[in-house]
Amino acid sequence: xxxxxxxxxxxxxxxxxxxxxxxxxxxxxxxxxxxxxxxxxxxxxxxxxxxxxxxxxxxxxxxxxxxxxxxxxxxxxxxxxxxxxxxxxxxxxxxxxxxxxxxxxxxxxxxxxxxxxxxxxxxxxxxxxxxxxxxxxxxxxxxxxxxxxxxxxxxxxxxxxxxxxxxxxxxxxx
Length: 174
Fold this sequence. Notes:
The chain is built from 3 helices and 4 strands, in the order H-H-E-E-E-E-H. It has about 170 residues and is of the alpha+beta class. It folds into 2 domains: about 15-65, no CATH class; about 100-174, no CATH class. The chain has a two-stranded antiparallel ribbon. A two-stranded antiparallel ribbon has the order 3-4. Helix 2 (about 55-105) crosses helix 3.
């Protein structure tokens, strides 16, 4: 060990009090500076002092986000409802058109009434849906006879409807 390291320094009580007062003053200065910094942070975070604090800003953002979520949910529900209504209306119109096409295209009602010269009467009724009917020879209890009866199951009527639709579409295009 070195001779200087073993040297002991003696202080008087006045020097000790003086050093303690310097340390207390430095700590008080640091305490004041730290308190000022913490007060500034507190005011910026939690207190409205002429400018909007962070807590108020966060609260406003939360309110805006909740309003936007509600608005998007409401618009989504209305949009889905409108789409479902639109699809149902389209299906209603398509089903009406399909029913009319079925009736026009393939529903044929035939009624034949015959009155013979001897005063006897007879009738044949037939409703055919989407089918062609051919009856080469119909005999009713020896009272009468019908030969060569046939229908096309409504094909001619369907062809006429399609021709009229195409002609109307072509007129609309020109």
